[in-house]
Amino acid sequence: MDRLFKLKEHGTTARTEIIAGLTTFMTMAYILFVNKLFLGQGGAGIPDEGVFFATAVGAGLVTLAMGLFVNIPVALAPGMGLNAYFMTVVLTSNGEITWQTALGAVFLSGIIFIILTVTKIRQLLVTAVPHSLKVAITVGIGLFITIIGFKLSNIMMVSVNPGTDTAKTPILNTNQFNIVMGDFIHNKDTMLALISLLIIAILMVLRVKGALLIGIVAATLIGIPLGVTNTEGLSQASWLPSFDHLAVGKLDIAGAFGVGIIEIILIFTFVELFDTFGTLVGTANRAGLLKDKDKGEKTVGKAMLVDAAGVSTGALLGTSTITAYVESASGVAEGGRTGLTAVTTGVLFILALFIAPLALIVPSAATAPALIVVGVLMMAQVKEIELDLFRIAFPAFLTIIMMPLTYSIANGISFGIVAYTVLTAIQNAFGSAKREPIHWLLWVISILIVLRYIFLGAG
Question: Cα separations (Å) of 14 from 19, 333, 345, 434?
Fold first, then answer.
């Protein structure tokens, strides 16, 4: 263990690393239950068993690779926000884009990601976009996820206009419904969702490790006497996912080259770019792995390559983009300093395959509140935006608000980048404040965005 992970060199022990890995798993295992809300039969349409298998195996394998090849305590799994975007792509395409095609788009974004990483263009893109917009993207996705959580939990219900066909887009068709408050008294699903939300919130206040996972499990058990949790299938279920329902290798790469899908590939790549960079650097820094600048940069570079390969790996298995998880910081806080922490987490994800039947009976009323809480955690970063400077505040606000209002992560990013570039250029030309540099790449991206809206429409 010491030779493989250099435990003494990092001032840690195998026991500490294993406990840290268990802690990381507990804090991010909620994705095993939540991911099917977005990608499963109630969302993008992938069989629920296939989603669970891809989530567990994908997170396990890529996290193991991070631990063994990079030796850092960072765990990976299908990313929140990117799975939401995956669902919106499928549900708002009116049947033109299938989940197989969307998986093809994720796979191609992974290939682009690998190329950007190897050529070091990735670092250039991260440098070009200002910190305020990177933060705003995270906050906007948090609001986007929160609204989906409220709807799936029936705390906010869909009131459909007469003559509306909701079969194709039951969750996301914002042009055709009004939001009204749910009936908390007579709707058992809503009651269970409120109970789940309350349990998770209390556990978060008490700083209990694995609060999201514990809250989901507790609400599922409470849902049995309420009649919300359906346990009938447990007696007939296999303790491993059925291979007949897996999505392994079912991606449609050829279809991903179709008209309009190129933009989707670029959005997957763009969002993943900033999400991963911040997580990797932040976690590595907290673990004290960046004290030696040259060694730290080399380590982060290797981690980025594993992360990029994980994107395409996830698509091959049948899930949306696999990315580094900020929850890895919980393991670091427990003393995790090496790849043994990640290896422990990865093994636990693979072992989770044996709880597939239990995971698949978990009702959305128990899991959807976790999305609301994740939204809170993502929203907390808004304090990093300099809101007293209008040149920064306005583009950041557009980025944040356009995502939930238009149900499009792409729209939020587009409005934010163009607004920032234009306002900064005007300030530099006519304002009294000091000139702020605008990276040439921002001009290129802004021009492409404007052309996209002119010739393709808002989409």
Answer: 9, 15, 14, 53
Q: Evaluate whether residue 32 is within a structural domain.
A: yes
Q: Tell me, what amino acid is at 123?
A: Q
Which of 311, 364, 355, 363 shows the shortest CA–CA distance to 52? 355
Query: Which residues touch 383 (CB under 8 Å, ≥6 apart)?
Result: none
Length of the chain: 459
Whole-number Å distance between alpha carbons of 53 and 5: 28
The string of pLDDT tens digits covering residues 17-36 is 999 899 889 888 889 888 98
279 within 8 A of 328, measured Cβ to Cβ: yes
Does residue 85 lie within any of the structural domains? yes
Which residues constitute the domain of residue 27?
A: 2-159+174-377
Last residue of a domain, one of 377, 410, 439: 377
Instruction: Name the amino acid, one letter, at 186.
Output: H
Given a contact cutoff of 8 angstroms between Cβ atoms, the answer to whether 276 and 324 are in contact is: yes
- Report the C-alpha gap between 81 and 37 in whole angstroms: 12
If you write DSSP's letter for every residue of 5-32 in order, what string do you get? H-TTTTT--HHHHHHHHHHHHHHHTHHH
Residue 166 in domain: no
Q: Which residue type sits at 260?
A: G
Least trusted range by pLDDT, from 8-17, 32-41, 191-200, 353-362: 353-362
420 and 338 within one domain: no
Q: Half-sphere exposure (CA, 13 Å, Cβ side) for 237?
A: 18
C-alpha span between 40 and 438 (Å, rounded): 42
Domain end position, chosen among 352, 377, 402: 377
Do both 312 and 448 map to the same domain? no
Per-residue burial over 97-131, b if 16 or more Cβ lie within 10 Å, else e, is bbbbbbbbbbbbbbbbbbebbeeeebbebbebbbe
Q: Does residue 454 or residue 427 have the better pLDDT?
A: 427
3-state secondary structure (DSSP) of residue 322: strand
Q: Do 272 and 317 belong together in one domain?
A: yes
SS (H, E, C) 250-261: CCCCCHHHCCCH
Task: Calculate mean pLDDT across residues 60-76.
Answer: 93
Residues 411 and 269 in one domain: no
Our count of domains for the chain comes to: 2
> For the segment 323-335, what is each residue's pLDDT rounded down to a tens digit?
888 778 778 878 8
Phi, psi of 339 (to 5 degrees): -70, -15
